[in-house]
Amino acid sequence: MGRRSGLPLIGWREYVSLPDLGVRSIKAKIDTGARSSSIHAFGLEVGTQRGARVATFEVHPHQRSARGAVEVTAEIIDERWIRSSTGHRQLRVVVWMDLELYGQRWTSEVTLARRDQMGFRMLLGREAVRGRFLVDPAASYLAGRPKPA
């Protein structure tokens, strides 16, 4: 039997905040089978700013809507080959992003991806949840749902 840890319990899908971007909530799939986290990046452009490589993109926090879109410029910390859930390899840009869930705030690596065909704009991989949460794959939104604006 596994060890009980006292970590907060989350479901297989939760609403995550991106506090530095002013995004109150974005629906995320918790995917312990994926190492990295990713976010759907609209209009991704790579460039240079003050000698650093940066990615400029938009985050659309609401599924099937551009409402509440936020433009982001973030320093690129890496580019990695990632194998998608369909088995295809893609070279993805990696940036740091502040995340908040269940009252916890932390910085995590996030890959920028085209998730047009996916059901969630964000995916939290095991590196983001390890040591912070326990995941109940039969539950959803244990951290709560956002209040209507």
| Count of discrete domains | 1
CATH topology-level fold name: Cathepsin D, subunit A, domain 1
Mind summarizing the main beta sheet? 9 strands, mixed
- Going by CATH, the architecture would be Beta Barrel
What value does the average pLDDT take? Answer: 90
Total of DSSP H or I helical runs spanning 4+ residues: 1
Please report which band the strand proportion falls in: under 5%, 5-15%, 15-25%, 25-35%, 35-45% or over 45%: over 45%
Number of strands: 11
The secondary structure category is: mainly beta
Summarize the structure.
This protein has 1 helix and 11 strands.
Per-chain topology:
Blueprint: E1 9-11, E2 13-18, E3 23-31, E4 37-40, E5 42-49, E6 52-59, E7 70-83, E8 89-101, E9 104-113, E10 122-125, H1 126-129, E11 134-136
Parallel strand pairs: 1-11, 3-10, 4-9
Antiparallel strand pairs: 2-3, 4-10, 5-6, 6-7, 7-8, 8-9
